[in-house]
């Protein structure tokens, strides 16, 4: 009587501590082991519940600080038992692989131990009990593997779909590029050209003529009319016409040189080394080179040191290519002004003194 | 100068002459005065167009010579902008070129900045300089600045400015009138502008006295840049001035006539007669423009013939632009679109109008033959391209050739822009000739003469030539090779033209080619396949957008071509790509995942493998064909492998097992 009362108390407590899904799972396991014996089934069920409650209490006490983790483990275990029993449905989840494996291993070990114990209690031999527990645990493991495989397949399908989308995107880029090329081609396409087959249309001599027709009759031939025109407008129109009806510049090297010549970029043919000389082109080289003929008219003495010096000046000026002839004559005139009559006497005197000194030195 | 004396001629006689005094006479001919360009002109006349070379503007490293119209534009504008950049550099930093000892000095190499209207002294002389150099906007700015600074501007200078701003609508000179930079002139796109109300032109018109000249200039400007309001204003000005007994100049009449309908135009012409005014070519062109607005074909025909008759009556020679206006407007506009000529009645009407057009062009071209053609108006060059359009529509090749001879004769000084309108002109002629000609030799001569020198390579022309080659029973390897090479240069390989190239090359009968032609065929195929393979291997991220994956059909055709030139190894390397799954998937894919190999190409490759008793090759072909064929088709092929090749029992079993696995 007291034992029966104790059993009742345990059952009530278990129902409060363990949720309904787990209870259903336990019932499934009991049915699997003892399909025919009702009393044995009930006894097994009660024992499993008690064990699980004790285990849960111990776990809770040991990991009070990680209650959420334990709840997760508990939930996973519930799922495991549900799959084994086939009575309950569990939503698909995406736990980390290592956590998933840890939960599976822990649940399977626990389940194997309990089933072995109950089988021994039920009268099976040790060997038979081991085989029984192994079989049930293997079934559970297979279900878990199938579940994991399904998840993996989902992930693989997503990856493949993404690859397909990327390929299509790449192809779209190529199509855009090709479209751009075709658009570039179309800009220069002649819209008149068509692929329709056309038969030749011949000249019709009986058609109405463009020439040889009756005129308007507005202006009369032979009568005199006044040319009343804005001159500049007509000139500018003709200039525009001349420019517009040209093409893309020179078509051969000679035309290019003609263009350069007219623009002043090139020496003119026939080659003339006096090209664009300016006023100097009218001056003979004689005026540049033979400068001594100007000396007598400038009052330079014909002999003596001054004459010698001026000879050297003329030679230097005649070799200068950068001065104009007029400038050279200015130089000579300057020297002539410098060597005026007074300076000529001074130079002459100094020259005599120098010669006397030279003779005395000997 | 001895050089300027010309050649001296010494007349000598033998000593045995009976007139010794005459034999000693020396005669020096007087110098012939020549302009600086006479010698160059004489030399240039001896040079004709080189049909084997590109245009003179494109003589360059051969790899840079353009083939298509877009690349021609890019090349030409790049050169021109480079020149302008150099010009700008010399203008902006003249001190970089200050060390200059060149004699003589050439001012063209020392460009100077244009005067800034906001910096320059506001004097009439500076304004006149800007006006004479056609700097329209700068002149306007300087004029407004002078007015704001209360500087007096004489009426004479204001009139000069009024002429400029009215002729150019207070805007800068349009690209079409740029003389120096021909690229901008021909490729630049001016926006068609309407009259700018309230600009300097209007201001000057209100300031200046209303004389015959100023009113006429204003009317001409309003009609030149016409929109609805400016035309209304022009007509009002005309009425007011005529009511005040004023006389209007011819250019104003020309503008008003061109902007009016034909009946109003004739009334205006009657007004000109009452003023005893002489018409010019612009008057008749304006009248032709107004006649072109008539809606009915019969009315236009009557008007055009009347006007041409009137020109002939008073001795005004029609310009090419006159004929352009006639040819352009003779056919009803709505009938020109081929797809809109739906009913038989419309087709018949179109045919009739086209017949009249072609007959008139025959008369026009007869009148132009042998005559010196000079540019009279800006649109004279458009006559040629418009006439060639009529010839193309009418498929009249004789008149087209006659038109080309007129255009290319020495007497013609009217030139179309070479790379835009002239290219269209020659494209139409070439398309017409290729369509109508049955002789591949003639097509080859025309093609090599005109492409890509005059006509840019384009898809339509290439397709047309390929169709001609395919339709003809003759073979013409030089033409095929030339079109393919032009297609390579023009970037046509990756597209429908590329497919056409492969098809045409597969149709070539190698045994009909000579030794050198066979070598050309070999090198061409090698080049093409190498380029296609290279394009497929652009798998790096930065090259991905340029990648062109090989399609199975492309692979089979290339493999067939490679086999024909004796490159079996490369051919089967390509074919192995079709059996390699990794080649068509992933980031490194080089093969397009859709489509299948050409059955006829695989069949020929299979026969070739059997002929060579190559078991591996035959098995490869069999495996590729199994991707699209079923078991019933594969068994005979396998049996032929067993017959022709030396296969052992193990191989037989493998092949038979492979075939048994194929779907029924």
Automatic annotation (TrEMBL), chain B:
<dbReference type="GO" id="GO:0005840">
    <property type="term" value="C:ribosome"/>
</dbReference>
<keyword id="KW-0689">Ribosomal protein</keyword>
<keyword id="KW-0809">Transit peptide</keyword>
<dbReference type="InterPro" id="IPR037387">
    <property type="entry name" value="PTCD3"/>
</dbReference>
<keyword id="KW-0699">rRNA-binding</keyword>
<keyword id="KW-0677">Repeat</keyword>
<keyword id="KW-0687">Ribonucleoprotein</keyword>
<dbReference type="GO" id="GO:0005739">
    <property type="term" value="C:mitochondrion"/>
</dbReference>
<dbReference type="Pfam" id="PF22330">
    <property type="entry name" value="Rib_mS39_PPR"/>
</dbReference>
<keyword id="KW-0496">Mitochondrion</keyword>
<dbReference type="InterPro" id="IPR011990">
    <property type="entry name" value="TPR-like_helical_dom_sf"/>
</dbReference>
<dbReference type="InterPro" id="IPR002885">
    <property type="entry name" value="PPR_rpt"/>
</dbReference>
<dbReference type="GO" id="GO:1990904">
    <property type="term" value="C:ribonucleoprotein complex"/>
</dbReference>
<protein>
    <recommendedName>
        <fullName>Small ribosomal subunit protein mS39</fullName>
    </recommendedName>
</protein>
<keyword id="KW-0694">RNA-binding</keyword>
<feature type="repeat" description="PPR">
    <location>
        <begin position="280"/>
        <end position="318"/>
    </location>
</feature>
<comment type="similarity">
    <text>Belongs to the mitochondrion-specific ribosomal protein mS39 family.</text>
</comment>
<dbReference type="Pfam" id="PF13812">
    <property type="entry name" value="PPR_3"/>
</dbReference>
<dbReference type="GO" id="GO:0006417">
    <property type="term" value="P:regulation of translation"/>
</dbReference>
<keyword id="KW-0810">Translation regulation</keyword>
<dbReference type="GO" id="GO:0019843">
    <property type="term" value="F:rRNA binding"/>
</dbReference>
<dbReference type="GO" id="GO:0032543">
    <property type="term" value="P:mitochondrial translation"/>
</dbReference>
<dbReference type="GO" id="GO:0043024">
    <property type="term" value="F:ribosomal small subunit binding"/>
</dbReference>
<dbReference type="InterPro" id="IPR055063">
    <property type="entry name" value="Rib_mS39_PPR"/>
</dbReference>
């Amino acid at each position: 009587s007291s034992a029966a009362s104790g059993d009742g108390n345990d059952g009530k407590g278990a129902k409060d501590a363990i949720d309904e899904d787990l209870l259903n799972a336990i019932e499934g396991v009991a049915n699997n082991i003892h399909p025919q014996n009702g009393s044995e089934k009930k006894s097994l069920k009660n024992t499993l519940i008690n064990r699980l409650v004790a285990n849960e209490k111990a776990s809770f006490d040991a990991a009070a600080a990680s209650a959420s983790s334990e709840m997760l483990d508990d939930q996973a275990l519930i799922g495991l038992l549900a799959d084994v029993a086939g009575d309950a449905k569990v939503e698909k989840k995406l736990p980390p692989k290592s956590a998933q494996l840890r939960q599976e291993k822990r649940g399977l070990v626990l389940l194997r131990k309990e089933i072995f114990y109950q089988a021994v209690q039920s009268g099976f031999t040790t060997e038979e009990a081991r085989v029984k527990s192994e079989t049930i645990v293997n079934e559970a493991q297979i279900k878990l593997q199938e579940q994991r495989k399904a998840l993996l397949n989902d992930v693989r399908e997503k990856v493949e779909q993404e690859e397909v989308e990327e390929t299509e995107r790449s192809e779209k880029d190529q199509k855009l590029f090709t479209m751009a090329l075709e658009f570039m081609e179309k800009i220069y396409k002649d819209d008149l050209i068509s692929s329709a087959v056309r038969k030749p249309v011949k000249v019709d001599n009986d058609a109405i003529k463009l020439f040889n027709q009756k005129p308007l009759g507005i202006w009369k031939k032979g009568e005199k009319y006044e040319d009343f025109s804005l001159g500049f407008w007509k000139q500018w129109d003709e200039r525009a016409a001349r420019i517009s009806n040209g093409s893309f510049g020179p078509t051969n090297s000679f035309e290019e040189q003609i263009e350069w010549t007219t623009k002043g970029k090139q020496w003119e043919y026939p080659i003339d080394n006096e090209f664009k000389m300016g006023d100097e082109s009218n001056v003979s080289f004689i005026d540049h080179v033979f400068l001594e003929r100007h000396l007598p008219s400038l009052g330079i003495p014909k002999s003596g040191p001054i004459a010698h010096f001026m000879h050297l000046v003329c030679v230097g000026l005649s070799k200068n290519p950068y001065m104009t002839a007029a400038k050279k004559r200015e130089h000579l005139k300057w020297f002539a002004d410098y060597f005026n009559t007074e300076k000529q006497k001074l130079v002459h005197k100094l020259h005599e003194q120098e010669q006397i000194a030279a003779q005395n030195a000997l | 100068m001895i050089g300027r004396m010309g050649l001296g001629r010494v007349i000598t006689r033998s000593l045995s002459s009976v007139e010794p005094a005459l034999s000693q006479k020396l005669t020096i001919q007087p110098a012939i005065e020549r302009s600086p360009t006479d010698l160059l002109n004489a030399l240039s006349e001896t040079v004709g167009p080189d049909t084997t070379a590109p245009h003179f503007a494109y003589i360059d490293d051969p790899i840079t010579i353009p083939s298509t119209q877009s690349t021609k534009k890019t090349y030409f504008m790049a050169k021109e902008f480079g020149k302008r950049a150099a010009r700008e550099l010399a203008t902006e930093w003249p001190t970089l070129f200050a060390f200059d000892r060149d004699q003589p000095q050439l001012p063209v190499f020392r460009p100077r900045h244009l005067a800034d209207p906001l910096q320059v002294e506001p004097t009439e002389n500076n304004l006149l300089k800007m006006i004479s150099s056609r700097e329209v906007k700068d002149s306007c700015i300087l004029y407004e600045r002078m007015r704001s600074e209360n500087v007096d501007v004489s009426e004479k200078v204001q009139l000069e400015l009024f002429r400029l701003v009215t002729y150019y609508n207070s805007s800068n000179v349009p690209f079409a009138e740029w003389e120096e930079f021909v690229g901008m002139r021909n490729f630049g796109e001016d926006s068609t502008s309407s009259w700018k109300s309230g600009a300097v032109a209007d201001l000057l018109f209100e300031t200046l006295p209303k004389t015959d000249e100023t009113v006429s200039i204003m009317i001409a400007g309003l009609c030149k840049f016409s929109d609805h309001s400016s035309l209304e204003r022009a007509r009002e000005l005309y009425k007011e001035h005529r009511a005040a007994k004023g006389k209007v100049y011819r250019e104003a009449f020309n503008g008003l006539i061109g902007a009016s309908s034909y009946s109003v135009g004739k009334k205006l012409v009657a007004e000109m007669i009452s003023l005893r005014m002489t018409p010019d070519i612009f008057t008749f062109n304006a009248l032709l423009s107004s006649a072109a607005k008539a809606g009915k074909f019969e009315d236009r025909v009557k008007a055009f013939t009347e006007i041409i008759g009137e020109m002939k009556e008073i001795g005004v020679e029609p310009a090419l632009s006159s004929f352009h206006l006639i040819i352009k407007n003779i056919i009803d506009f709505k009938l020109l679109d081929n797809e809109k000529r739906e009913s038989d009645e419309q087709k018949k009407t179109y045919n009739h109008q086209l017949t009249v057009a072609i007959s008139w062009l025959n008369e026009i071209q007869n009148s132009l033959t042998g005559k010196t053609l000079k540019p009279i108006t800006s649109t004279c060059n458009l006559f040629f391209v418009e006439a060639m359009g009529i010839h193309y529509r009418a498929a009249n090749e004789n008149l087209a050739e006659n038109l080309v001879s007129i255009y290319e004769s020495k007497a013609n000084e009217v030139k179309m822009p070479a790379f835009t309108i002239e290219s269209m002109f020659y494209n139409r002629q070439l398309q017409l000739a290729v369509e109508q000609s049955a002789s591949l030799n003639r097509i080859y001569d025309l093609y090599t003469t005109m492409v890509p020198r005059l006509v840019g390579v384009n898809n339509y022309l290439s397709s047309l030539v390929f169709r001609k080659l395919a339709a003809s029973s003759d073979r013409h390897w030089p033409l095929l090779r030339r079109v393919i090479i032009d297609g390579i240069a023009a970037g046509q390989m990756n597209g429908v033209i590329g497919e056409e190239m492969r098809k045409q090359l597969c149709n070539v009968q190698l045994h009909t080619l000579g030794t050198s032609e066979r070598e050309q065929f070999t090198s061409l195929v090698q080049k093409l396949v190498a380029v296609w393979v290279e394009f497929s291997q652009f798998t790096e991220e930065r090259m991905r957008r340029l990648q062109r994956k090989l399609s199975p059909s492309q692979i089979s055709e290339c493999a067939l071509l490679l086999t024909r030139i004796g490159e079996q190894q490369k051919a089967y390397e390509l074919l192995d790509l079709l059996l390699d799954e990794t080649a068509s998937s992933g980031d490194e894919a080089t093969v397009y995942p859709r489509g299948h190999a050409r059955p006829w190409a695989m069949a020929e490759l299979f026969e070739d493998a059997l002929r060579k008793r190559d078991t591996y090759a035959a098995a490869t072909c069999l495996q590729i064909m199994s991707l699209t064929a079923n078991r019933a088709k594969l068994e005979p092929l396998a049996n032929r492998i067993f017959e022709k090749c030396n296969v052992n029992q193990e191989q037989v079993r493998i092949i038979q097992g492979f075939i048994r696995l194929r779907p029924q």
